[in-house]
């Protein structure tokens, strides 16, 4: 797009060093000097001459110039203070060059009326870059690739007043608060053997010797034995040599076509292994031979990606096993008490074919993480989790759950993270979460919630992060979030169908981040926000047509306001009167063509504050845009 907009207006012509009224000293594309021949003239047109570089003193002999045109050359940079002696200059065109910076070029140009920097690859107008220009200057920017404009771009970058120094000290001392990583949903599922097991105490047995090998025998795909391989010994026909991961104290038997196990197959009792990987084999059933004779050090078994169809009771008896990964099998049935004779802390059952949770009430009370995502579960029975007082993390994402009834999570006294994303939720009864006093993270995004009953979240007294994005909420009233817990830090309501907000829609919470991206909000009434500690407000991808200064009352600590991808075509004076605390205002991807004098008055001009404006249609920036005019 930049190239299309900036095709040369004047074709390069053969150089004539003596042009009408003046002489040029132009050597190998470097302009060294300009002198008048007969009388003083006030216009100098050097466009399209293929100039590559200007020497700093090139214009010292033409101080009376009022108009200087350097458009359509090949300038990549200019010496600082290049034009400072041209104090009568009223028009300066640097359009259609390859300039990337404008640092210290316009000092003493108080009479300049028009500065044309169109069609240059300038990405950032940094602090002080336009210092010297006045409110009477129009900066033409058509065909620009600007990404950001410092709010101090018109200020003297060499000076720091007391107010700015105090502000910088405050910024240094202030802890930067940011939304937690959205990857929490996958954090446990993608954990490696080493970090899943890092909290377990090391074995008292001798360490694994460097280069330890194992002998694995699997005749007819039935695992007969796995045992240490003595030094300098060769494995027999039909057996394999397997390495040991000494650092992670693990063995991988992944993808070897194993279908079953002989009794006493595991002969590694004297090696302090903690993890056994049997993923991606052909195992169809967990038998007594598979898990029950494993030693006390072996606490993690990975059976992911096999063909197991059911988990039966009276089969698994292993009080040492802590982590069992059954992800991506074909399990459609787990019998009651199937895990009763274990002390599991983490159980992966995601990516199976489970349709109900009737077995959940008989899971061992030692569980702290339970992952049931990507099954076919359509409902949660009453008291399903009543015997899991230690459970901290519960993931039910990507199922078919339609309703959460009152007290459905009764018994989960320690639960901190609950994920029910990508389900079919349409109804949450008011007391559904009433038992979750320790819950800090609740993810309900990508469901079909059209309304929320008042008080739905009121008893979540420890909640910090609530995500309701990608639902069907249509209107936010003063009652919708009136009873949110005062602990709430982050609230996401992105990509719903919200078309209106009411006064007092958000009071006191969330404390740090409110995200309303991707809705249909066209206006924001005065008093919508009363959020004294909010830092980030996301309103991108809505239908706002202007910045209404009254809309942002009640946000005294706001640091970042995201208004990109709206329909903003005008920013009148007074728009930023309540935005003096901002460090970032993002108005990128809007149809705005002009930033007039006074439009951004109210934004702080101290160092480190920016206007983001990438993918813009800006054609003109006036020199008093940040002033009270």
Automatic annotation (TrEMBL):
Q: Which gene encodes it?
A: LOC100650242
Pfam families per the UniProt record, alphabetical: LRR_4, LRR_5, LRR_8
Q: Which InterPro entries match?
A: Dev_Immune_Receptor, Leu-rich_rpt, Leu-rich_rpt_4, Leu-rich_rpt_typical-subtyp, LRR_5, LRR_dom_sf
| Species of origin | Bombus terrestris
* Name of the protein in question: Leucine-rich repeat-containing protein 15
- List keywords of the entry alphabetically: Leucine-rich repeat, Repeat, Signal
């Amino acid at each position: 797009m930049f190239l299309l907009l900036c095709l040369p207006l004047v074709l390069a012509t053969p150089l004539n060093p003596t042009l009408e009224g003046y002489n040029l000293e132009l050597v190998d594309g470097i302009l060294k000097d300009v002198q008048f021949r007969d009388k003083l003239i006030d216009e100098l047109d050097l466009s399209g001459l293929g100039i590559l570089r200007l020497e700093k003193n090139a214009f010292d002999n033409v101080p009376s110039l009022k108009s200087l045109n350097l458009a359509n050359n090949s300038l990549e940079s200019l010496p600082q203070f290049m034009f400072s002696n041209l104090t009568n200059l009223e028009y300066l065109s640097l359009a259609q060059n390859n300039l990337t910076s404008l640092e210290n070029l316009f000092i003493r140009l108080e009479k300049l009326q028009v500065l044309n920097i169109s069609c240059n690859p300038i990405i950032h107008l940094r602090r002080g870059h336009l210092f010297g220009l006045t409110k009477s200057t129009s900066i033409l920017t058509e065909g620009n690739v600007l990404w950001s404009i410092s709010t101090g771009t018109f200020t003297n970058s060499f000076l720091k007043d007391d107010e700015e120094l105090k502000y910088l000290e405050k910024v240094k001392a202030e802890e930067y608060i940011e939304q937690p990583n959205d990857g929490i949903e996958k954090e446990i599922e993608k954990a490696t053997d080493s970090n899943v097991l890092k909290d377990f105490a090391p074995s008292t047995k001798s360490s694994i010797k460097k280069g330890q090998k194992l002998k694995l025998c699997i005749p007819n795909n039935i695992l007969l034995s796995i045992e240490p391989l003595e030094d300098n010994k060769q494995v027999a026909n039909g057996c394999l040599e397997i390495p040991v991961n000494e650092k992670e104290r693990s063995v991988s038997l992944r993808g070897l076509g194993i279908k079953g196990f002989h009794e006493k197959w595991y002969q590694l009792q004297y090696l302090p292994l903690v993890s056994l990987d049997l993923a991606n084999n052909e195992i169809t059933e967990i038998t007594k031979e598979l898990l029950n004779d494993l030693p006390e050090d072996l606490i993690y078994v990975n059976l992911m990606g096999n063909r197991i169809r059911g988990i039966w009771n009276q089969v698994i008896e292993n009080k040492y096993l802590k982590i069992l990964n059954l992800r991506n099998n074909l399990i459609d049935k787990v019998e009651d008490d199937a895990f009763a004779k274990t002390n599991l802390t983490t159980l992966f059952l995601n990516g199976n074919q489970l349709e109900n949770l009737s077995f959940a009430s008989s899971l061992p009370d030692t569980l702290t993480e339970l992952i049931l995502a990507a099954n076919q579960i359509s409902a949660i029975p009453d008291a399903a989790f009543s015997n899991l007082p230690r459970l901290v993390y519960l993931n039910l994402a990507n199922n078919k759950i339609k309703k959460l009834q009152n007290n459905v999570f009764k018994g989960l006294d320690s639960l901190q993270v609950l994920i029910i994303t990508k389900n079919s939720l349409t109804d949450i009864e008011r007391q559904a979460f009433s038992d979750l006093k320790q819950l800090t993270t609740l993810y309900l995004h990508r469901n079909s919630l059209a309304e929320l009953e008042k008080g739905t979240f009121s008893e979540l007294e420890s909640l910090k992060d609530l995500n309701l994005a990608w639902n069907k909420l249509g209107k936010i009233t003063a009652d919708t979030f009136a009873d949110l817990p005062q602990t709430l830090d982050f609230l996401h309501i992105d990509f719903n169908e919200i078309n209106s907000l009411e006064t007092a829609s958000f009071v006191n919470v969330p404390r740090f981040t409110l995200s309303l991206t991707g809705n249909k909000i066209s206006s924001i009434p005065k008093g919508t926000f009363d959020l004294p500690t909010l830092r980030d407000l996301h309103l991108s991808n809505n239908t706002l047509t202007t910045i209404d200064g009254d809309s942002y009352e009640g946000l005294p600590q706001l640091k970042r306001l995201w208004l990109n991808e709206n329909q903003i075509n005008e920013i009148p004076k007074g728009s930023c009167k309540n935005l003096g605390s901002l460090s970032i205002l993002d108005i990128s991807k809007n149809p705005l063509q002009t930033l007039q004098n006074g439009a951004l008055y109210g934004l702080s001009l101290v160092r480190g504050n920016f206007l983001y404006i990438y993918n813009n249609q800006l054609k003109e920036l006036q020199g008093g845009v940040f002033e009270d005019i």
